[in-house]
Amino acid sequence: MSTALLVAILMTVAAAATPLLIAALGELVAEKSGVLNLGVEGMMLIGAVTGFAVAVTTGIPALGAVAAMAAGAVAASIFAVLTLGLMANQVATGLALTIFGTGVSALIGVPFVGITTTTLGPIFPASLASDPVWRVVFGHSPLVYLGLILTFAVWWFLKQTRAGLILRAVGESDSAAHSIGYPVLTVRTLAVLFGGAMAGLGGSYYSLVLTPMWAERLTAGRGWIAIALVVFASWRPGRLLVGAYLFGLVLTMELQAKAAGFNFLAPEFLSALPYLATILVLALISAGRRSARTVAPACLGRPFRASA
Length: 308
Hints:
The chain is an all-alpha fold. The protein has a single domain (3-295), classed as ABC transporter involved in vitamin B12 uptake, BtuC (Orthogonal Bundle). Helix content is 74%, strand content 0%. It has helices at residues 3-32, 40-58, 61-85, 90-109, 132-138, 142-160, 162-172, 174-179, 184-210, 222-232, 237-260, 267-287, 289-295. The protein is globular, with a radius of gyration of 20 Å.
């Protein structure tokens, strides 16, 4: 394998893994607080179309990424009001949020179909990335580096800070946390909003970096892979990083196989590879469901009703 091909594969793996990693980190924090939000795909789409619209309108891709985070948080706030305030079923509400996000993003994106915008380019000088080897280090989008920083930040927050301890306590035993004075609903609301912001940012990666354009259902179901990654990683940020890049490798294998013209596998099968891998991961986890239950937050998906 030539150096140029290896560099191209590594760059593609990082690009494919980054939106999954960012969105999954947000979902991990939400689930650590005891909230199961299956609306990641919908929030990613809302973030993707909002980020693209703002980038096209203002000509500033970075502002589009910030707007995508805000849009994802707004979408997550709808979920928070329904599930935490009105005690709606979290699974059903999350699925509804995905449907809502798919429809709203398609509607908002109609005027922007076929338009391109400036990409959110590398932050390092081009001279540093001129050499193929150094390009792997310095040639990425800012969001690639941000994803790595966020992984460490989430690990540090959950393991080394008092606020992280409170969040984990709320996810493990909401009644006990409430009894000693912790604001359970406030903690969960903030966690859900963070998850929405990260999903929006992850979605904007597709419209501001990878394409950069808008098309209906641009994320192509990657939000579901992000949710599966959280379980695959056993709710641990470090494992989540590894899992995201493994899935990025699977996605890259699909692209490389198509580019190489491998005709012995149908194109539809190659496109389905990432999702088949997701199903395989979930099946393996289900086979060991007893151990999965021991690492999952004890109150995950359960509604909380404050007692006097």
